[in-house]
Amino acid sequence: MNALPSEIDFSAPSEVVARLLIGAVLTVDGVGGRIVETEAYDREDPASHTFSGPTPRNAVMFGPPGHAYVYRSYGIHWCLNFVCREAGHGAGVLIRAIEPLTGIDVMRERRGLEPVKLLCSGPGRLGQALGITHRNNGMALTQPPFQVEAAGEAFPIVSGPRIGITKAMEVPWRFGLAGSKFVSKPFPKAQ
DNA sequence: AGCCGGATCGTCT
DNA sequence: GACGATCCGGCTC
């Protein structure tokens, strides 16, 4: 009844890709799980790193789609994005939370003993649990250590305002798997 | 359950 | 020199 998982078209608009990624399975060196929360960012988007044009930091986001854009957050965390749209556009999807499925022991080594629920619940935690660093910046998502398997079925999706931004707060480009206990924060009015 | 401050540093003004 | 696409611990209600 389910169609075979098809490849995700990263050249689509970031808000489309952000929805497609809900339910997809992401692993890094075999460690990962089901994506349950994403956020879309785009070039004409005041909340996006690319809003003010290309810089050394955001260069990867202006490169070809289907690559990893990794940035340092608050001087502490590494956050993982997938580049979208055509090369030169400057759009991407922030991976905010996954439901851990494989390599949970490795995640615990990296993050310490804590409930599975919290291992990848938020972009900083996810980055640490999956071992993401600046070395992953610019890497193709079709090549090791990355593996992205598209969802084989349509998952129920909720949406709402993005987290932790101060601009374009009215844009509802945060997406989540409806009812998931692994999202970083509840969605307004959802379920 | 919710608010507050500290940690920590690359990036851009 | 200021500011984060954040997390965590400690405190209060």
From TrEMBL:
SUPFAM superfamilies in alphabetical order: FMT C-terminal domain-like (SSF50486)
Domain of life: Bacteria
GO molecular function: alkylbase DNA N-glycosylase activity; DNA binding
Name of the top EC class for this enzyme: hydrolase
EC number(s) recorded for this UniProt protein: 3.2.2.-
GO biological process: base-excision repair
Keywords of this entry: DNA damage, DNA repair, Hydrolase
Keyword Isomerase: no
InterPro entries the UniProt entry points to: Formyl_transferase-like_C_sf, MPG, MPG_sf
Keyword Magnesium: no
Family recorded in the similarity comment: Belongs to the DNA glycosylase MPG family.
HAMAP family: 3MGH
Protein name, UniProt field: Putative 3-methyladenine DNA glycosylase
Organism: Caballeronia glathei
